[in-house]
Amino acid sequence: MIIIRKILYIINIICALGLMLTYIPAFISQDIFTKVSLLGYLYPLLLVTNCVFVIIWIFLKPRHILLPLIAIIIRFDYITRLVNINSYDEGGVLKVLTYNVHDFVHGNENDNFLGTVTLQDSILHYISNSQAHILCLQDYDVNITWEKGFHKFLTDSLGYTHFYFYYIGDEYVSNCCIYSKFPITDAGSAMENDSKRHYLLYSDIRTPWQTVRIYNFHLISYMLGDKEKSAYKSILNGNITNEASKSLISKITTANKIRAKQIKQIIPEIEKQQKPVIVCGDFNDHPFSNTYHRFSKILSDSFTKKGNGIGKTYNGIFPAYRIDYIWYDKSRLECINYKCDYKDFSDHYPVTATFNIKKQ
Fold first, then answer.
1. Strand ranges of the sheet holding 211-218, from the earlier edge strand across to the other edge
2. What percent of the chain lies above the pLDDT cut of 90?
């Protein structure tokens, strides 16, 4: 029994040190030490492992409980980013919805097929029931001239008569858009050298209470294709090969590096705003990353304030955790409630948050 306890303690030391290592990526820019950024993905696994050791030591050796407990408590705030318990409050005057609709091709074998009637109708029905005042959509490619199309239904039937997006040609819009039931007084790109000019948008929306600046971001994704998906499935099955590992790591670290550069340009743009700010979108990064850390220094996370349950917004095979966010300026806004609905219409889940606007 003594030998078993010693072996368990050695394993616990390794797991506790591993957990503490997962705290490092938040404080290091992902374009400097790209490999270090991968450690954050291990946080949930190592957290659970150390929690198990807490239970084990209660029965086997109570004094050893300090090791996993200290490792967990050092960054206890990480737990609320992963799982949360809050009361659901009614009310709020401004409801915002962010949703990556995946070009309406979720579950469709042909990735080039832009849209299916079934998915579009399901998402439109969800938006209608949400009663959101503002929509921030990503991976949104539609023909806005179709009389019975998605765009026309939003504007003519659901009351989103104000909108902003970039045109691709005369008829199509691509990637990000902002729809509002309130007037949009100004809009543009949040980053000067956004060459695509449809990934980082903002709109100033004149609500009945105050003008609010809404950002809709779709930060660089990992661009994981069939090859990487196959490699990930192989790794899950225990077939870990150098080729599979290198392919996944290369895609992830390359995206992390680009995203870090995006963040360095976006943050100053947000900091200079005098209006109440709400930042929505698909960040393609987890809550234990440097991306999250940078945003948490200037804005509040609606999930940690009013979220319930496990924070998961990605509907895919990869353990991406929570990558869709609604951030807000807590000095000017009060978050009343937050909700993530597990709707299988896209590879992301829709997220809503409701706010009150504080009197200045």
1. 184-189, 200-206, 211-218, 277-282, 324-328, 300-301
2. 65
Task: Tell me, letter by letter, the H, E, C secondary structure of the chain.
Answer: CHHHHHHHHHHHHHHHHHHHHCCHHHHCCCCCCCCHHHHHHHHHHHHHHHHHHHHHHHHHCHHHHHHHHHHHHCCCHHHHHHEECCCCCCCCCEEEEEEECHHHCCCCCCCCCCCCHHHHHHHHHHHHHHCCCEEEEECCCEECCCCCCHHHHHHHCCCCCEEEEEEECCCEEEEEEEEECCCEEEEEECCCCCCCCCCEEEEEEECCCCEEEEEEEECCCCCCCHHHHHHHHHHHCCCCCHHHHHHHHHHHHHHHHHHHHHHHHHHHHHHCCCCCEEEEEECCCCCCCHHHHHHHCCCEEHHHHHCCEECCCECCCCCCCCCEEEEECCCCEEEEEEEECCCCCCCECCEEEEEEECCC
Q: How far apart are CA 334 and CA 284, in angstroms?
A: 25
Tokens of 170: 């005369």
Residue 57 to residue 53: CA distance in whole angstroms: 6
pLDDT, tens digit, for every residue of 61-90?
Answer: 899 999 999 999 999 999 999 999 887 778
How many whole angstroms separate alpha carbon 191 and alpha carbon 218? 12
pLDDT tens, position by position, 85-102: 887 778 889 999 999 999
- 324 or 34: which carries more pLDDT confidence? 324
Looking up tokens 């909108």 gives 163
Whether the CB-CB separation of 336 and 93 falls below 8 Å is answered with no
The single-letter code of the amino acid at 124 is L
CA pair distance 283, 151, nearest whole angstrom: 24
